[in-house]
Design goal:
This protein is 38% helix and 16% strand. The chain has 419 residues and is an alpha+beta fold. The radius of gyration is 25 Å and the shape is elongated. 30% of the residues are buried.
C-alpha cells in the first residue's frame, strides 16, 4: 500500500525564491499545455499527443526568449506539470463517458498565480535525496531543513513540495508501506456517527464531539473582520489574509489530529469495525452544513478504512438506508417513526434503548451479516425507501443524492494543485 508522509520544511529566503520560481514555471507549462489542447479542439484539429505537447511547451519553449527562464528549474518539475494536465483531461473524458464513478468532473481549468496554494512534484528522475544530515536535497533549490516527526518506512518514490494558504511549506513523500497485522483481539464494534456525540460505539462508549470550528469562531470572526477592512491589493490585506488562513489551518490541524488519535485507538482495540455509508455531501447542503463539515466524518471514515487494511483488521460500510435507529436490537421490531428529539425509547418487547447505542449495536450486527455473506453496500440507486433520520445519520433523500458521492479518498497520488 502506498501512503503519504508529510513533514513541515523550513526553506531559507533564497530557497523560497527558488521554490516560487518553480511554482511559476510549473503553472506556465500547465497553462500552455491546456491552451494548446483547447485551441486544437476549437479549430477541429486532432488531439495533441503527450510527445508533441512536451516538445512544444517545454523543449521548444526553452529556446524562445520569452520562455528561456524555464531552464532555471528542474525539467522533472515541468514534466510533472505536463503529466498533471494529461491526467486532468483523462479524468474529464472518463467522467463524460461514464467510466469514472462519482460526480461529473469539469474540464481542466487554467491555474492562477493568485492561488494561495502552490505545489510542485519531484520524482526519482529528479534525483532528490535525503542527506545524511536529514535535509531534503532538491535539484536547483538546495538542501531544505525538514522537521522530522517520524522516520520514513521506506525509500520515497516521489516528493511534493507544498506551500499552503497560511504560508507554510510541507514535503509530502509517497512511500510503500508493508501491511503489518496487529495482534488479534476478540472485540468488534459498530460505530454510529452523529453531531451530538462524534461517535457512539456498540459497547456504549461515546466519543464527545470537539467542535473545533465552533470553538474557534470568535477568533475567526475577528480575523475576517480585520481582513474586510483592509484595502484590496495592499500589503496589510495580504498579511490579514495570511492571519485568516493560519486560523483556519489551526482548526484543520486540530481536527485531523483528533481523527488520527480516535481512529487509531478504535482500530487497535477492535478486530472488526463497521460504519454506515454516510451521505455527507447531501447533509452539507442542509442547514447543518457547518456542523457537518466541522465533524469531518468522511476524513475519519477514510482513516479507519486504510488503517484497518494496514493492520489486518476487518472494515465494512453498511447500507445507508439500513434503519439502525428505529430497529430494536433485542427483538428486531421496526418502529414506525423515530423523531430526532427521541433520545431514549422503549420497545413493546420491554427493552429500553439509548438511541445512539442501539443504532451502533444494529450497525455491528448488520456489518457482521454483510461480511459473512461477502456483500458490499447497496449501490446508490434511487430506491423507494426514505431515511428514518436524515439529519442524524447522514442520510439524504434519493433525489438529493444523485449529485452527492465522489470516489474514496486515496492516500497516495497527486495533490490537487501539484504540478
Amino acid at each position: 500500500m502506498r501512503l503519504r508522509y508529510s513533514y513541515r520544511i523550513d526553506p531559507t529566503p533564497g530557497q523560497r525564491l527558488a521554490l516560487a520560481r518553480a511554482f511559476g514555471c510549473a503553472r506556465v507549462v500547465f497553462n500552455d499545455a491546456l491552451r494548446m489542447r483547447n485551441d486544437a479542439q476549437h479549430n477541429g484539429l486532432p488531439f495533441v499527443t503527450d510527445a508533441d505537447l512536451s516538445a512544444a511547451v517545454i523543449t521548444e519553449a526553452k529556446k524562445r526568449p520569452e520562455r528561456a527562464w524555464l531552464c532555471e528549474v528542474s525539467a522533472v518539475v515541468l514534466q510533472q506539470a505536463l503529466a498533471d494536465c494529461t491526467t486532468a483531461f483523462r479524468n474529464f473524458f472518463s467522467s463524460v463517458s461514464g467510466k469514472r464513478k462519482g460526480p461529473k468532473i469539469a474540464p481542466p481549468r487554467y491555474r492562477s498565480k493568485k492561488d494561495n496554494r502552490q505545489a510542485i512534484r519531484f520524482t526519482k528522475n529528479a534525483r532528490f535525496k535525503i542527506t545524511e544530515g536529514g535535509k531534503l536535497s532538491l535539484p536547483k533549490i538546495g538542501d531544505i531543513a525538514v522537521r522530522w516527526s517520524r522516520d520514513l518506512p521506506s525509500e520515497p518514490s516521489s516528493v511534493t513540495v507544498i506551500k499552503d494558504a497560511a504560508g507554510r511549506y510541507f514535503a509530502s513523500f509517497v512511500v510503500q508501506v508493508t501491511e503489518t497485522a496487529l495482534p488479534k483481539v476478540a472485540a468488534a464494534t459498530g460505530i454510529d456517527l452523529g453531531l451530538g456525540h462524534f461517535a457512539v460505539l456498540s459497547d456504549g462508549t461515546k466519543v464527545a464531539s470537539p467542535r473545533f470550528l465552533r470553538r474557534a469562531e470568535k477568533k475567526l470572526k475577528k480575523a475576517q473582520r480585520a481582513l474586510s477592512r483592509k484595502q484590496k491589493g495592499s500589503a496589510n490585506r495580504a498579511k490579514a489574509r495570511t492571519e485568516v488562513a493560519r486560523a483556519h489551518a489551526k482548526v484543520a490541524d486540530a481536527r485531523r489530529e483528533f481523527h488520527h488519535q480516535t481512529s487509531t485507538r478504535i482500530i487497535r482495540d477492535n478486530q472488526a469495525v463497521y460504519v454506515e455509508d454516510l451521505a455527507v455531501t447531501g447533509l452539507a447542503r442542509s442547514k447543518l452544513a457547518k456542523s457537518v463539515h466541522d465533524a469531518g466524518w468522511s476524513a475519519f471514515v477514510g482513516m479507519l478504512e486504510y488503517k484497518a487494511a494496514l493492520s489486518g483488521r476487518t472494515f465494512a460500510k453498511i447500507d445507508r438506508w439500513f434503519p439502525s435507529s428505529k430497529l430494536c436490537s433485542a427483538c428486531g421490531r421496526l418502529a414506525e417513526s423515530m423523531p430526532l428529539n427521541v433520545r431514549e425509547w422503549t420497545c413493546p418487547c420491554g427493552a429500553v434503548h439509548d438511541r445512539d447505542v442501539n443504532a451502533a449495536i444494529n450497525i455491528l450486527a448488520a456489518g457482521r451479516r454483510q461480511v459473512a455473506a461477502g456483500r458490499k453496500p447497496a449501490p446508490e440507486t434511487g430506491g423507494k425507501r426514505r431515511p428514518e433520520t436524515p439529519v442524524e445519520t447522514g442520510k439524504t433523500r434519493p433525489a438529493a443524492r444523485q449529485r452527492g458521492q465522489g470516489g474514496t479518498v486515496g492516500e497516495a497520488g497527486s495533490h490537487r494543485s501539484a504540478a
